Protein backbone atom coordinates (compact mmCIF):
# COMPACT_ATOMS: atom_id res chain seq x y z
CA UNK A 1 0.00 0.00 0.00
CA UNK A 2 1.16 3.51 -0.81
CA UNK A 3 1.65 6.17 1.82
CA UNK A 4 -1.30 8.52 2.29
CA UNK A 5 -0.48 12.19 2.16
CA UNK A 6 -2.73 14.47 4.19
CA UNK A 7 -3.75 17.90 3.00
CA UNK A 8 -1.42 19.39 5.58
CA UNK A 9 1.74 17.72 4.22
CA UNK A 10 4.17 19.93 2.33
CA UNK A 11 4.98 18.92 -1.20
CA UNK A 12 8.56 19.12 -2.47
CA UNK A 13 7.43 21.97 -4.76
CA UNK A 14 6.07 23.91 -1.77
CA UNK A 15 9.30 23.38 0.16
CA UNK A 16 11.31 24.56 -2.85
CA UNK A 17 9.08 27.62 -3.32
CA UNK A 18 9.33 28.63 0.35
CA UNK A 19 13.06 27.97 0.38
CA UNK A 20 13.63 30.24 -2.63
CA UNK A 21 11.18 32.94 -1.54
CA UNK A 22 12.46 33.16 2.01
CA UNK A 23 16.13 32.33 1.57
CA UNK A 24 15.88 29.37 3.96
CA UNK A 25 17.21 25.84 3.53
CA UNK A 26 14.74 23.01 3.06
CA UNK A 27 15.89 21.67 6.45
CA UNK A 28 15.00 24.98 8.12
CA UNK A 29 11.61 24.94 6.41
CA UNK A 30 10.95 21.40 7.64
CA UNK A 31 11.92 22.35 11.23
CA UNK A 32 9.49 25.28 11.10
CA UNK A 33 6.88 22.97 9.60
CA UNK A 34 7.31 20.40 12.36
CA UNK A 35 6.81 23.04 15.05
CA UNK A 36 3.84 24.56 13.19
CA UNK A 37 2.13 21.18 12.90
CA UNK A 38 2.84 20.47 16.57
CA UNK A 39 1.09 23.72 17.52
CA UNK A 40 -1.58 23.53 14.78
CA UNK A 41 -2.26 19.83 14.07
CA UNK A 42 -4.99 20.71 11.58
CA UNK A 43 -2.52 22.82 9.58
CA UNK A 44 -4.43 26.05 10.25
CA UNK A 45 -3.49 28.99 12.46
CA UNK A 46 -6.54 31.08 13.36
CA UNK A 47 -6.48 34.83 13.94
CA UNK A 48 -6.67 34.63 17.74
CA UNK A 49 -3.79 32.14 17.95
CA UNK A 50 -1.74 34.25 15.56
CA UNK A 51 -2.27 37.30 17.80
CA UNK A 52 -1.02 35.35 20.83
CA UNK A 53 1.99 34.06 18.92
CA UNK A 54 2.80 37.49 17.50
CA UNK A 55 2.77 39.05 20.98
CA UNK A 56 5.25 36.42 22.19
CA UNK A 57 7.70 37.35 19.43
CA UNK A 58 7.39 41.13 19.43
CA UNK A 59 7.57 43.69 22.19
CA UNK A 60 5.24 46.63 22.56
CA UNK A 61 1.94 47.79 23.92
CA UNK A 62 -0.70 45.04 23.53
CA UNK A 63 -3.13 47.32 21.66
CA UNK A 64 -0.42 48.29 19.20
CA UNK A 65 0.64 44.69 18.72
CA UNK A 66 -2.98 43.68 18.10
CA UNK A 67 -3.25 46.23 15.29
CA UNK A 68 0.00 45.16 13.64
CA UNK A 69 -0.78 41.46 14.11
CA UNK A 70 -4.19 42.00 12.52
CA UNK A 71 -2.63 43.81 9.54
CA UNK A 72 -0.06 41.03 9.14
CA UNK A 73 -2.74 38.34 9.37
CA UNK A 74 -4.96 40.08 6.80
CA UNK A 75 -2.07 40.62 4.41
CA UNK A 76 -0.87 37.04 4.45
CA UNK A 77 -4.18 35.21 4.59
CA UNK A 78 -3.85 35.05 0.80
CA UNK A 79 -6.88 32.85 0.23
CA UNK A 80 -9.00 34.83 2.76
CA UNK A 81 -9.91 31.61 4.58
CA UNK A 82 -9.67 33.16 8.04
CA UNK A 83 -6.68 30.92 8.79
CA UNK A 84 -3.01 30.98 7.93
CA UNK A 85 -1.64 27.85 6.35
CA UNK A 86 1.95 26.92 7.12
CA UNK A 87 3.22 28.70 4.00
CA UNK A 88 1.21 31.84 4.74
CA UNK A 89 2.39 31.81 8.36
CA UNK A 90 6.05 31.34 7.49
CA UNK A 91 6.01 34.09 4.88
CA UNK A 92 4.27 36.45 7.34
CA UNK A 93 6.73 35.66 10.12
CA UNK A 94 9.86 35.95 8.00
CA UNK A 95 8.79 39.20 6.35
CA UNK A 96 7.65 40.86 9.56
CA UNK A 97 10.84 39.84 11.35
CA UNK A 98 13.41 40.44 8.63
CA UNK A 99 16.28 42.86 9.10
CA UNK A 100 16.56 43.95 5.45
CA UNK A 101 15.16 47.48 5.37
CA UNK A 102 14.06 47.40 1.73
CA UNK A 103 12.19 44.14 2.30
CA UNK A 104 10.52 45.72 5.33
CA UNK A 105 9.35 48.62 3.18
CA UNK A 106 7.97 46.23 0.59
CA UNK A 107 6.16 44.45 3.38
CA UNK A 108 4.83 47.74 4.79
CA UNK A 109 3.46 48.63 1.35
CA UNK A 110 1.61 45.32 1.25
CA UNK A 111 0.17 45.98 4.71
CA UNK A 112 -1.13 49.40 3.71
CA UNK A 113 -2.50 48.37 0.34
CA UNK A 114 -5.70 47.31 2.05
CA UNK A 115 -7.64 46.60 -1.15
CA UNK A 116 -4.62 44.67 -2.50
CA UNK A 117 -4.62 46.26 -5.93
CA UNK A 118 -0.83 46.88 -5.82
CA UNK A 119 -1.44 50.64 -5.69
CA UNK A 120 -1.50 52.81 -2.59
CA UNK A 121 -4.30 55.30 -2.79
CA UNK A 122 -4.54 58.49 -0.77
CA UNK A 123 -7.20 57.06 1.56
CA UNK A 124 -4.96 54.08 2.34
CA UNK A 125 -2.05 56.41 3.14
CA UNK A 126 -4.24 58.52 5.44
CA UNK A 127 -5.32 55.34 7.24
CA UNK A 128 -1.73 54.05 7.50
CA UNK A 129 -0.36 57.32 8.88
CA UNK A 130 -3.23 57.57 11.35
CA UNK A 131 -2.61 54.03 12.58
CA UNK A 132 1.15 54.56 12.83
CA UNK A 133 0.56 57.72 14.89
CA UNK A 134 -1.91 55.82 17.07
CA UNK A 135 0.52 52.91 17.49
CA UNK A 136 3.30 55.21 18.59
CA UNK A 137 1.13 57.35 20.82
CA UNK A 138 1.73 60.44 18.68
CA UNK A 139 -0.65 63.34 18.33
CA UNK A 140 -2.94 62.97 15.33
CA UNK A 141 -3.92 66.57 14.67
CA UNK A 142 -3.18 66.98 10.98
CA UNK A 143 -3.10 63.48 9.53
CA UNK A 144 -4.75 64.62 6.28
CA UNK A 145 -2.18 67.37 5.71
CA UNK A 146 0.73 65.09 6.54
CA UNK A 147 -0.67 62.39 4.27
CA UNK A 148 -1.03 64.88 1.40
CA UNK A 149 2.56 66.06 1.81
CA UNK A 150 3.89 62.49 1.91
CA UNK A 151 1.64 61.38 -0.94
CA UNK A 152 2.88 64.21 -3.15
CA UNK A 153 6.50 63.28 -2.40
CA UNK A 154 5.96 59.58 -3.07
CA UNK A 155 3.81 59.94 -6.21
CA UNK A 156 6.85 60.54 -8.38
CA UNK A 157 6.02 59.41 -11.89
CA UNK A 158 3.31 61.40 -13.64
CA UNK A 159 1.57 62.57 -10.48
CA UNK A 160 -1.23 60.17 -11.30
CA UNK A 161 -2.67 60.15 -7.77
CA UNK A 162 -1.46 56.61 -7.14
CA UNK A 163 1.66 55.28 -5.45
CA UNK A 164 3.19 52.12 -6.80
CA UNK A 165 5.17 49.79 -4.60
CA UNK A 166 8.37 50.94 -6.31
CA UNK A 167 7.51 54.61 -5.67
CA UNK A 168 6.75 53.83 -2.05
CA UNK A 169 9.97 51.91 -1.40
CA UNK A 170 12.24 54.35 -3.25
CA UNK A 171 10.49 57.34 -1.69
CA UNK A 172 11.01 55.95 1.79
CA UNK A 173 14.61 54.97 1.09
CA UNK A 174 15.54 58.40 -0.22
CA UNK A 175 13.43 60.48 2.19
CA UNK A 176 14.59 59.50 5.65
CA UNK A 177 11.95 61.67 7.29
CA UNK A 178 9.12 59.74 5.59
CA UNK A 179 10.09 56.14 6.32
CA UNK A 180 9.73 56.24 10.12
CA UNK A 181 6.20 57.56 9.74
CA UNK A 182 5.15 54.61 7.59
CA UNK A 183 7.27 51.62 8.51
CA UNK A 184 5.57 49.58 11.26
CA UNK A 185 8.55 47.50 12.35
CA UNK A 186 11.17 50.17 13.10
Automatic annotation (TrEMBL):
The record's Pfam families line, in alphabetical order, gives: EF-hand_5, EF-hand_8
GO MF term (any one): calcium ion binding
Q: Which domain of life is it from?
A: Eukaryota
Q: Where is the EF-hand domain?
A: 64-99, 100-135
Q: Which InterPro entries does the record associate with it?
A: EF-hand-dom_pair (IPR011992), EF_Hand_1_Ca_BS (IPR018247), EF_hand_dom (IPR002048), Recoverin (IPR028846)
UniProt keyword Repeat, yes or no: yes
Is this entry keyworded Repeat? Answer: yes
Q: Which UniProt keywords apply?
A: Calcium, Lipoprotein, Metal-binding, Myristate, Repeat
Q: Which family does it belong to?
A: Belongs to the recoverin family.
Q: What is this protein called?
A: EF-hand domain-containing protein
